[in-house]
Design brief:
The structure holds two protein chains of two kinds. Chain A contains six helices and nine strands. Chain A is an alpha+beta fold. Chain A has one domain: NADH Oxidase (3-Layer(aba) Sandwich), CATH 3.40.109.40. In chain A, strand 2 and strand 3 form a beta hairpin. The two termini of chain A are 28 Å apart. Chain B has 33 helices and 25 strands. The chains are: A alpha+beta, B alpha/beta.
Chain lengths: 209, 801
């Protein structure tokens, strides 16, 4: 049976300003900015945010077996990870998701770097990273909201390839299941998803009645 | 039940709805994991019991248990072929229980995202909902509720499906989070504007929050509502107890909020998650005999997008409708649109938003393109990339209809004239989707010459619009400005029409500014003067280019002078301190020329440093002094501030940029002195093979360059051989390697080992990246840097600077 993919083309993310500043090393108690510095930094942040196209895709699949070492899914996919199996111990289904901010921001980072504007490149990069994370947070919250109507919920934690003992190779399965190439993403030989500001995640779907 | 009967019911008293259904069914034996609609259909006695309990508690209306009865949800249980049957059956069961009370068909989310926010075509969603609606109508429902909606576009699809099927009353209820927006970012006022113009009979909220938050929400939208408001709160905020979600508010406390709800303006009350017949009983008892506050207005001049709204007319700020997304006369935009591209559209949207436009006009009329297709694509793009409401600008009815159907808000339509086609075809379409109208006083015979004739045309069009339910608040009359270069009285006719509309007829007015000056030299003076004159007559909207500072300043100033900018807050915010820029401050300051150079680096002011250095040189400070006593001490202080966390990385880079720009000015002067003509140290930098993360590497490269190093940047995903070949070829001694991932950092060791193998023992390696630490660096025989500043220090140390 074909896996149903749920796609959101425009995730309604607000600019995660505080998170971006923190990512850049801003210390909310110590760091001080002149009005000009603040204006310039905020301008870069808003420019970068305007270039983000946060999109998301997710699928729900049945877990057919969880022996504590390997998680097997309805289509035969296997994830070998004790940590993941433990996370999924109360789940009959798994939630598989990916978010990306798209290509435009990455192109813009290259363009500002070519003009030796390192500050802008750094801020654009931080905006991309935080927006991709915020997009995944949003997706998780949105799906949780929908699941709650049917007495289900997502596991409190989410997992990604490369975490704990889940090999990065799992990225290949996620890529295939979510058909991420149709989403404009690529997977390189090191199992990294391109464009860079893209996030994948796994979570368990648990009963909540 | 007719829509009038529904309205009368809400006029008379607080209408009481039911409470939670799912938990009541579960209490009575519905197992988890089943399709609730099918289970209820097969166990009708259970819902009968639940609904009877709610009616006995005082409910006037109960919902048919059809929450998940749309084709998308039923498909999850393989029941998509039984949509009509199940919905009809559930409605019949409920209708039988209701007696002389009411049952409303329950329409809820599909679980999919609809165009333009998702990949489900808008009409596919409308058609899916229609299947459900047809079943519920056949089963005898008295009305509908579209509830627990998180996305305004999905709720629009449901409302259109109902309106295209029957004329029963419809309540639309969204789920707003504690932050006041839905999970998709829709705000309550914009959603209210969208749905009341699209034909909803009541609007409100359910789920997500308890009574306290909902009272505030109802209060915040009451002044904008032309229809009754509903609230169906949860029994308090959910708490997680032993891994289970629990709603703890008891029935008595739940009922205690009713008076506040009524005072806030609610007309219809019920309960959502965690509520029981006891909660509804307490609510009904508290509401008994109390009169609701009727909607305070009958019409509202306002447009909305999915995430924002704009009130028009009255004491609202003057509204500039950004005119730039229109290919007429724009060769670059025309070329892009012919190639199916939208980069310039996106750029224009962003720029006009920043420049203060209130609404974006969208016109895709261009020969050689499919206008309808491009209009839909433009709406999709703009709905995602801009929060501003749109003005749909087309002369073709099919384009206009397609656009209004999918636009996720209440649009402004540009325009309706007295031409036969526009009146007969376009006006009913506009009315169906509740669009606001720009009324153009022209007829099939052309543009009337006199003001009196134009007034008659305006009255005629308004009369026709009124027949379709429009009010004066819903229209804006276009002053229809002709060029004064061919007829000098043209401006006066338009001004008189604007004056009559604003002061006698009582409608909003709008005009396109640029026509008036066509064929004239220095058009901006004519345009702006005309704007000033029209403002004096009462003009409150203009289709204009917001990049014109003169126009925007005139508009902002007029808002102050007319009292629309209350307490002048926007004007002050926009213009106060405009002249107090850094340049001004520094010129006025008492700093010496050398101190100014120092401050430029310290504050990262790369705009001013060249001027500051020029001033210093003019006052006979030598280039060497500027380097030794200003630039270097300043950047060292920046480094100290960075280490103390008083500066963060962007500030460090800004300062380094300012210093580099200072050096660029001074370098030719320094080189005149042979002693200063020292060759730069060369460094190679690369992100190792397999890794595509290069921002850290790029920042280090930039900082090293700013500190006077010649940096050869080999890029990312670079093999060990390439790095070492480059090192040999360029005769460098220092190689910087970067990696972000644990899986790729091992490549650093490969590079170092290969260098040893190739006998390149003179090479010194610097390594860094998120997962790299001092221990790892030491283990592979490299030097660790934690950030860009420490990389500079390390490079200084390794090169003996």
């Amino acid at each position: 049976m074909k896996i149903k993919l749920n796609i959101i083309n425009a995730l309604p993310i607000m600019l995660p300003e505080r998170m971006i500043l923190t990512r850049l090393g801003y210390n909310h108690h110590l760091t001080g900015l002149t009005p000009r510095q603040k204006d310039k930094i905020m301008q870069d942040m808003h420019e970068a945010f305007a270039l983000c196209r946060p999109r998301g895709v997710w699928a729900r699949m049945a877990i057919t077996d969880n022996d504590g070492e390997t998680l097997r899914l309805q289509d035969g996919t296997e994830f070998r990870s004790r940590a993941l199996c433990s996370l999924m111990s109360a789940s009959a289904n798994i939630w598989i998701a990916a978010t990306t901010v798209g290509h435009e921001l990455l192109d813009a980072i290259a363009a500002v770097l070519a003009q030796s504007d390192g500050k802008a490149a750094l801020i654009y990069d931080a905006v991309g990273g935080e927006v991709a994370d915020a997009a995944m947070d949003y997706l998780q919250k949105y799906v949780n909201k929908n699941l709650s109507r049917s007495g289900e919920k997502l596991s409190a934690k989410r997992f990604s390839p490369g975490y704990s003992d889940l090999n990065l190779e799992a990225q290949r399965d996620i890529f295939r299941i979510l058909e991420l190439e149709k989403f404009g993403l690529e997977l390189n030989e090191r199992m990294l998803i391109l464009p860079e500001k893209s996030v994948t995640a796994l979570a368990g779907i648990e009963i909540n009645i | 039940m007719t829509r009038n009967e529904f309205r009368n019911l809400t006029n008379d008293r607080i209408v009481i709805l039911d409470g939670a259904t799912g938990t009541e069914l579960a209490k009575r034996g519905m197992p988890g994991g089943v399709c609730p609609e099918l289970w209820v259909y097969e166990n009708p006695g259970v819902i009968n019991e639940v609904q009877q309990a709610y009616f006995a508690a005082g409910a006037d209306i109960v919902y048919v248990p059809s929450f998940g009865g749309n084709p998308y949800k039923l498909e999850e249980f393989g029941l998509e072929s039984r949509v009509f049957e199940l919905n009809k059956g559930l409605a019949e069961i409920s209708r039988k229980t209701a007696g002389n009370k009411y049952v409303f068909g329950d329409i809820a989310p599909t679980g999919n995202f609809i165009f333009p926010f998702g990949d489900v075509p808008f009409d596919a969603a409308v058609n899916a909902y229609k299947q459900q609606v047809e079943g519920l109508v056949a089963g005898g429902v008295d009305g509908f509720v579209i509830e627990t909606m998180m996305d305004v576009q999905e709720a629009r699809a449901a409302l259109i499906a109902i309106r295209e099927t029957c004329d029963l009353p419809v309540m639309v209820s969204m789920t707003f989070e504690p932050d006041g927006r839905t999970l998709t970012g829709n705000d309550p006022v914009s959603a209210l504007i969208t749905f009341q113009s699209l034909g909803a009979d009541a609007f409100g909220c359910n789920c997500s929050t308890g009574p306290r938050n909902m009272i505030e929400l109802i209060r915040s939208i009451k002044d904008f509502a032309t229809i009754p408001l509903l609230a169906k709160p949860n029994a308090g905020m959910p708490k997680l107890i032993n891994g289970q979600t629990v709603f703890g508010m008891g029935a008595e406390e739940f009922g205690s909020y009713v008076d506040e709800f009524i005072a806030a303006g609610v007309n219809i009350l019920g309960g959502c998650c965690g509520t029981t017949p006891e909660h509804i009983k307490a609510q009904a008892a508290a509401a008994k005999g109390k009169k609701p506050i009727q909607p305070r207005i009958t019409a509202l001049g306002a447009v909305s997008s999915a995430r924002s709204s704009r009130m028009l007319g009255g004491d609202q700020h003057f509204a500039v409708i950004g005119e730039r997304i229109n290919p007429t006369g724009k060769k670059a935009l025309q070329a892009e649109l012919r190639e199916g591209k939208f980069n310039i559209v996106r750029k224009f949207a962003q720029e006009q938003t920043e420049q203060g436009a209130a609404i974006l006009d969208v016109n895709m009329g261009l020969s050689g393109i499919d206008e309808k297709d491009m209009m839909l694509k433009a709406i999709a793009l703009l709905s995602q990339s801009s929060d501003l409401p749109l003005c749909i600008d087309s002369t073709r009815p099919e384009v206009m209809e397609a656009a209004l159907r999918v636009y996720p808000g209440r649009a402004l339509l540009n325009s309706i004239s007295a031409e036969k086609e526009r009146i007969e075809e376009m006006l009913p379409i506009a009315a169906k989707y509740g669009a606001m109208l720009i009324v153009l006083p022209l007829t099939d015979a052309g543009i009337p010459e006199t003001t009196e004739e134009r007034i008659e045309v305006v009255k005629y069009i308004y009369g026709k619009a009124q027949e379709l339910g429009y009010h004066k608040e819903d229209i804006c009359v276009d002053g229809l400005i002709m060029t004064v270069s061919s007829n000098q009285s043209a401006a006066q006719v338009s001004l008189d029409l604007i004056g009559w509309c604003a002061n006698d007829f009582g409608v909003n007015t709008v005009c396109g500014l640029s026509n008036v000056s066509f064929g004239m030299p220095q058009r901006q003076w004519v345009n702006n003067t005309f704007l000033g004159m029209a403002l004096g007559r009462g003009l409150n909207m203009a289709i204009a280019n917001p990049s014109s500072e003169m126009i925007m300043a005139t508009v902002h100033a007029s808002d102050v002078l007319s009292g629309r900018d209350r307490k002048m807050s926007r004007y002050v915010e926009l213009y106060a301190g405009k002249s107090d820029d850094i340049a001004g401050t520094m010129q006025k300051s008492d700093l010496t020329p050398q101190e100014k150079v120092f401050q430029c680096v310290l504050q990262g002011d790369d705009d001013m440093i060249a001027a500051a250095i020029a001033e210093a040189l003019k006052s006979s400070v030598t280039p060497r002094t500027l380097v030794d006593d200003c630039l270097i001490p300043a950047i060292n202080k920046v480094g100290d501030l960075f280490e103390q966390k008083k500066y963060f990385l962007p500030q460090l880079i800004m300062s380094a940029d300012a210093m580099r720009k200072g050096f660029e000015v001074l370098e030719p002067l320094l080189q005149e002195d042979a002693a200063d003509n020292v060759e730069k140290t060369r460094i190679i930098i690369a992100t190792v093979k397999g890794d595509i993360h290069d921002i850290g590497k790029n920042i280090v490269a930039l900082m090293l360059r700013n500190y006077g190093y010649e940096v050869i940047d080999l890029g990312k995903d670079v093999s060990a051989d390439t790095i070492l070949d480059a090192a040999v070829q360029n005769e460098v001694d220092i190689v910087c390697l970067s990696a972000l991932m644990t899986t790729t950092m091992v490549e650093m060791e490969t590079v170092v080992n290969l260098a040893r193998k190739r006998g390149l023992d003179h090479l010194k390696f610097m390594v860094g990246g998120a997962v790299v630490d001092e221990d790892y660096a030491e283990q592979i025989g490299a030097n660790y840097s934690s950030d860009a500043m420490s990389a500079v220090k390390m490079a200084n140390q390794l090169s003996g600077k």
